[in-house]
UniProtKB/TrEMBL annotation:
Record PROSITE patterns: PROKAR_LIPOPROTEIN
Name this protein carries in UniProt: Sugar ABC transporter substrate-binding protein
Pfam family of the protein (one): SBP_bac_1
Source superkingdom: Bacteria
InterPro entries, per database record: Bact_solute-bd_prot1 (IPR050490), SBP (IPR006059)
Family annotation (Gene3D superfamilies): Periplasmic binding protein-like II (3.40.190.10)
Coiled coil stretches, renumbered: none
């Protein structure tokens, strides 16, 4: 699941924040780090600049910034050639597992214990592979959330659904009142991943997708994935989404607008939609009708209903190709600066929630912290936080995953064909 801000600045290496030095080992002026442009990364870049101002000469971090897709291409090439930056950014998942398998990042176990003690377990675990710590959280949490328009629920006399049977009832009742039950940006495809992940996890638990990440044979054919794919098609057939939902995109927040304008009753999207509503549709956001809650529980499911899906956060890993001096600079930064008080306060003021167990201390005195507290509680109480599938799978599976999901939503392939296509990538 991608935020709208990730594609706000296009072009390879756009928007460099600081002077750029050579990549990988041999950086005589300190260590280096590559980050993204836009959104939270602009604030991370400013925070690293603040770190550099107080660091000793030769102990600074040199920054280079990239647009999202350019970064993915460049980082794979640089790591493969032994020219990776000292700090490697990833979403964890398949790419991080690949780095570990190929001995391209160092085990940080025992090196970042103080930071680990401050981070929610459900988030921290995404950087742990085979018992070793290979990725350290560095940005905000972004779980999938069910948003709703309270006025529409009052109009039809329903409560916001907490279970899947109540979802099915709501779809029927809203359709009877000519109200679209759910806004869905099918044209962007990736918002449908949130649905697919939650349904799979609610049905079979986090072990189901873990089998995919672990590369188990025919892992895509598991019952819970097929179940979720079948439900996705049933939702389109039952009118859960508008007839034109495959033409709706998230790039311009069209799915959020449908909720704000009262054309749809609910929206399943990332946590960043809260800020989108306040920026783009303030009348609705401040009307008292804008609500949010967790994805409904599946009564017959084996999964833990506390589980959440989305982007736990982005992670920094330390390259094995960096010199010992560069690695130490990176460790000093991770231990002494990540989630410092000023950065945490900046994040909260822009409705970004860092994955910290002590976040309550930073929210004292904030006006209307309800949403921030909701997101923090959601993550804190989660038994498991599953990374977005398009980030979690191996790089060669990312685009086929999106393409197959798009074909499923269009009705061009069946759930069985979806899993066969994905399994075939591993043969």
């Amino acid at each position: 699941m991608r935020r709208r801000t990730r594609t706000s600045i296009a072009g390879f290496g756009a928007g460099t924040l600081l002077a750029i030095s050579g990549c990988g080992g041999g950086n005589l002026d300190g260590a280096n780090v590559w980050i993204l442009t836009g959104g939270i990364w602009d604030r991370v870049g400013e925070d690293i600049e603040n770190y550099n101002e107080q660091a000793e000469d030769g102990q600074q971090l040199t920054i280079e910034t990239f647009e999202n897709e350019s970064y993915k291409e460049r980082i794979r090439t640089s790591i493969g050639s032994g020219e990776a930056p000292t700090l490697i950014m990833s979403w964890s998942g398949g790419p991080l597992a690949e780095y570990v398998d190929q001995d391209q990042v160092i085990d940080l176990s025992g090196e970042v214990d103080a930071l680990q003690a401050r981070v929610h377990d459900s988030v921290w675990d995404n950087g742990v592979i085979d018992g070793g710590v290979y990725g350290v959280p560095v940005t905000d949490v972004a779980p999938g959330v069910l948003y709703y328009n309270e006025a529409l629920f009052e109009q039809v006399g329903l409560d916001v659904p907490e279970t899947w049977s109540e979802v099915e009832q709501a779809i029927e009742v809203f359709n009877d009142h000519d109200i679209t039950p759910f806004s869905m940006a099918g044209g962007s495809v990736w918002p449908a991943l949130i649905w697919l992940q939650y349904l799979t996890d609610r049905h079979g638990g986090e072990e189901v997708f873990q089998a995919v990440v672990d590369g188990e044979p025919d892992a895509w054919s598991q019952e819970s994935i097929l179940y979720a794919l079948e439900i996705m098609q049933e939702l389109t057939e039952k009118g859960a989404f508008d007839e034109t939902f495959m033409g709706v995109t998230a790039d311009q927040n069209e799915d959020a607008r449908l909720l704000a304008d009262g054309e749809a009753a609910m929206l399943v999207q990332g946590s960043w939609v809260f800020l989108t509503m306040h920026d783009d549709y303030p009348d609705f956001a401040e009307s008292g009708d804008f609500g949010w809650t967790t994805f409904p529980a599946l009564e017959e499911g084996a999964g833990d209903p506390s589980n959440v899906v989305g982007n736990p956060t982005q992670f920094f890993s330390v390259s094995v190709d960096a010199t010992e001096e560069e690695q130490q600079i990176a460790l000093d930064y991770l231990n002494s600066w990540v989630y410092n008080d000023e950065m945490v306060q900046t994040m909260l003021e822009t409705q970004s929630v860092p994955p910290l167990t002590d976040i309550d201390d930073h929210m004292d005195g904030m006006e209307d912290p309800d949403y921030l507290e909701f997101i923090d509680t959601l993550v804190d109480e989660a038994n498991h936080f599953q990374l977005s599938w398009d980030q979690a799978v191996m790089p060669n599976e990312e685009q086929p995953l999106i393409e197959n999901l798009e074909n499923l939503l269009h009705g061009n392939i069946t759930p069985q064909e979806f899993v066969e296509n994905m399994n075939a990538l591993r043969e």
